[in-house]
Amino acid sequence: MPIITVSNQKGGVGKSTIAVHLAMALQAHDKRVLFLDLDPQANASKTLERRTPAAKIASSQLFNEAVEGVDGSDSLTLIQADSAMADIERADPSVLIVFKRNLENLAHHFDYCVIDTPPTLGLRMTAALIVADHVLAPIELEEYSIDGITKMLQTVFGVKEKWNPDLNFLGMLPNRFNPRSLAQKATLANLVQHYSHLLIKARIGIRSSIPEALADGIPVWQLKKTAAREAEREFKAAFAIVYEKMGGIES
């Protein structure tokens, strides 16, 4: 079960939107997907609960007790964020071992796992990076978001060096791009110049159809509106690159 962690140490970059759409895209490829929400804001959980009933266990239990299996639908299973997740940050680091063992126990039930992380460095983000096979980092092309890129990359490659040598950094995915913004265009050009090898050569624009689809618990490509077609094209182009960097979708 390849694990894809969607992570950024800055909030408000559309991380949960990317994570949810990635999970639903893999589901559309007839894959059994486990979605694990570690973000206390639980935005991903709220969206996916409109699509599929949440599992009876919550995310915090994966850190505190042995979990051998999980109930859920055949194609997409949600383990939702819960209020007890806040206590994990004050827990003993040994919970990381419990979390890793539980993900290993669940591996044979699913084809893929997508993890949405909190926007701050701590035990939950560290846990999600330690167990991951791949990490995808959505970014917003704004000054404050770009300022955090170095810190984010240090975290990812620090975990890779210390704990997870096989961690594959898929790249930074520009999100919420405004093609009319000269500042964003300049920022994107700067990223291409300095981080080209770490940048996914695609972008997701700001489109009202995206939050509208999420409010209905569906991916934007299932929204029956002409305005959603461009968003569909952008997501599918971005995910095609992600799949290629993952070595393809497993059969």
From TrEMBL:
As recorded in UniProt, coiled-coil segments are none
A Pfam family of this chain? AAA_31
Q: Which CDD domains match?
A: ParAB_family
Q: Which Gene3D superfamilies match?
A: P-loop containing nucleotide triphosphate hydrolases (3.40.50.300)
| Classification via InterPro entries | AAA_dom (IPR025669), DNA_Partitioning_ATPase (IPR050678), P-loop_NTPase (IPR027417)
Domain spans labelled AAA? 2-168
| PANTHER family found in the cross-reference section | COBYRINIC ACID AC-DIAMIDE SYNTHASE (PTHR13696:SF99), P-LOOP CONTAINING NUCLEOSIDE TRIPHOSPHATE HYDROLASE (PTHR13696)
Protein name stated in the entry: Chromosome partitioning protein ParA
- Species name: Marinobacterium nitratireducens
Q: What are the leading ranks of the lineage?
A: Bacteria, Pseudomonadati, Pseudomonadota, Gammaproteobacteria, Oceanospirillales
